[in-house]
Specification:
Length: about 500
């Protein structure tokens, strides 16, 4: 793979000392990145590396998209997705400094409408709980990524979803609680979350290209996201979803160049350009472990060199081959991002890519850490390709197992017209089932999906562009009238 790239050395390698101490040079770095891109079929990527408050390396590789073949530079915008969460917790830390809130305030002190389905938990949930993935709620991302709901609407709706685990007992990644945290920022500061992070973080850090809105993104110099099909091994354009609602949980779009300043700010404990933007204590709290993450299954496979893994507030904290590693990944719209800090070495870096293969960035992350800390290397691409293949094969097997459970030669218990109608859920809203010429069609918010009969009163809703492959099961009452359907594991009741 020829490294199509735009190369920027912002600080002539500090100078040769960095290369000598870490046994690293630009060619070695380029080779590591391009090897990963080739192994994983990544169209475009960008990285930036910071050491001792200096941007020692910033580089773009490959292309923004296959239509124009325009080259990625260190100024090209990527969607940084869930690495936005650390911006939200930094914003909260600023408000803690100003005594406008505390981490352990009950959320209801700031958002009177906030609730969980468990009333006891509702009264106890704190701001700290919102940003540590321990409320007991599972993901329910469909509430924001397939709907036109506002941020407040989504936070209100999640209150009707039953907890899947007892409150504060287990780590469960949850984006909507970060949306709620962004609404807390809005309430406490009097500014929309978007405006707060722009004026209090982006502008002081000279992150001049970084934006939160999709309109600003569309008008910018940006990459386009791609998806990878495991079965065909093809890379195709990813159909993007609107990121307005995810807000504080993942709406930021940034470049390697801008993110380098964010990393400088983090490593300098809130200090940037002769200003203390947030107290070291406040920012340090965001990197203090809060919730244990169990190292089993895919999590163990993803972290083979880690003994302890935890979630802080917008950051993961773990050990990696004897190093303290503070990091976070992001995944959205065919983009993958990794932000990684080695605080004890005063080193940090960002990796941005426009292909939805997260393990690729973990492979490159580990490779870069090994290089930057002069550790014995390992073929991380080979290892994580194996892990990725194992995960894909597990998913494929689950689909085959589902198909094997299908009872052949069955028919629906009613004429198809009997299933048509509106079905409602307090959390998920209205699903409309209509009868078309070729069968039933499901409509829910932005989704319109034909239903294929599976067996009995069970149908499948499959839309590859929308990443939807769900079963839809109808149930009847004792009189034989179709009354409910399940979709996204949520029950909808007929009007």
């Amino acid at each position: 793979m020829r490294p199509l790239r735009a190369f920027v050395v912002v600080c002539v390698f500090a100078a040769g000392a960095f290369a000598q101490q870490q046994r690293l040079d630009a060619k070695t770095l380029d080779r590591a990145v391009t090897n990963t891109m080739r192994a994983w079929k990544i169209p475009g990527a960008a990285i930036a590396i910071v050491q001792n408050d200096r941007v020692i390396y910033a580089n773009g590789y490959g292309v923004k998209d296959f239509t124009t073949n325009a080259l990625v530079t260190s100024d090209t915008l990527f969607q940084i997705a869930s690495t936005s969460k650390a911006f939200t917790t930094a914003a909260l830390a600023m408000l803690v400094d100003e005594k406008k809130l505390s981490w352990d305030d009950p959320v209801r002190e700031h958002l009177e409408y906030f609730r969980l389905a468990d009333e006891c938990a509702s009264s106890q949930v704190t701001i700290r709980d919102l940003v540590t993935h321990r409320t007991g709620l599972s993901r329910h991302d469909e509430l924001w990524d397939n709907t036109p709901l506002t941020r407040e609407d989504v936070v209100r709706r999640i209150g009707f979803v039953p907890l899947s685990k007892p409150f504060r007992t287990e780590y469960q990644y949850q984006n909507i609680m970060f949306i709620a945290a962004g609404e807390v920022v809005t309430h406490a500061s009097g500014m929309r979350w978007d405006d707060f992070v722009k004026t209090r973080i982006f502008q002081p850090l000279q992150m001049t290209r970084t934006v939160t809105s999709d309109a600003d993104w569309a008008a910018s110099d940006h990459a386009n996201g791609f998806r990878y099909d495991f079965t065909t091994e093809r890379v195709t354009p990813q159909q993007p979803i609107d990121t307005t609602t995810i807000g504080a949980g993942g709406a930021i779009k940034s470049s390697a160049h801008d993110m380098a300043n964010w990393i400088r700010f983090q490593l300098a404990q809130g200090f940037f350009d002769n200003r203390q933007l947030v107290s070291a204590e406040g920012l340090g709290e965001t990197k203090t472990p809060q919730t244990v993450i169990r190292l089993d299954g895919l999590t163990r496979d993803t972290n083979p060199e880690t003994q302890l893994l935890s979630y802080a507030m917008g950051w993961n904290v773990q050990d990696y081959r004897g190093e303290l590693l503070v990091s976070h990944a992001g995944a959205l719209n065919g983009f993958r991002t990794h932000v990684d800090l080695l605080p004890r070495r005063n080193i940090g870096f960002v990796i941005l890519s426009n292909l939805g293969r997260g393990m690729a960035l973990v492979a490159l992350r580990n490779t870069l850490i090994d290089m930057l800390t002069a550790k014995m290397g390992r073929d991380w691409n080979a290892y994580y390709l194996m892990v990725d293949r194992k995960a894909d094969e597990k998913e494929a097997k689950e689909k085959l197992d589902r198909q094997a459970r299908r009872q052949p030669n069955t028919t629906p218990s009613h004429p198809l017209a009997a299933y048509a109608g509106d079905y409602e859920s307090r959390a998920y809203g209205t699903v409309k089932i209509s009868l078309a010429e070729n069968g039933l069609v499901l409509r829910w918010n932005r989704l319109t999906i034909p239903l294929a009969h599976f067996h009995y009163d069970v149908f499948t809703a499959v839309s590859e562009p929308d990443d939807v492959d769900e079963q839809v099961a109808f149930s009847s009452d004792v009189d034989g009238t179709v009354k409910t359907l399940t979709f996204f594991d949520e029950t909808f009741t007929r009007r």
